[in-house]
Design goal:
Elements lengths: L1 H7 L8 H10 L38 H14 L1
Length: 79
């Protein structure tokens, strides 16, 4: 990746790691280094690494089980 970055006159973080890994996996002896894919320059594109809560089918329980059972029993009696 460093050789490709120097040859293409860009910073090393702009060279695609996946493209470099694929080339290394398929490269033959004495094969010349091709032009590797360059990632676009996007300043201020740093995102925190966090896990989001996945969406669930049911709402979050905010009352006691006893209260919820009572409300459910009252609701089903009306139907």
């Amino acid at each position: 990746m460093a050789q490709a970055a120097r040859r293409q006159q860009v910073a090393i973080d702009r060279i695609s790691f996946v493209d470099a890994a694929r080339w290394l996996a398929a490269a033959r002896d004495e094969e010349s280094l091709p032009w590797l894919v360059m990632n676009p320059h996007r300043p201020y594109r740093y995102e925190p690494r966090v896990r989001k809560r996945r969406l669930k089918q049911y709402p979050v329980m905010q009352k006691t089980r006893q209260a919820l059972r009572k409300a459910l029993a009252n609701k089903t009696d009306m139907d």
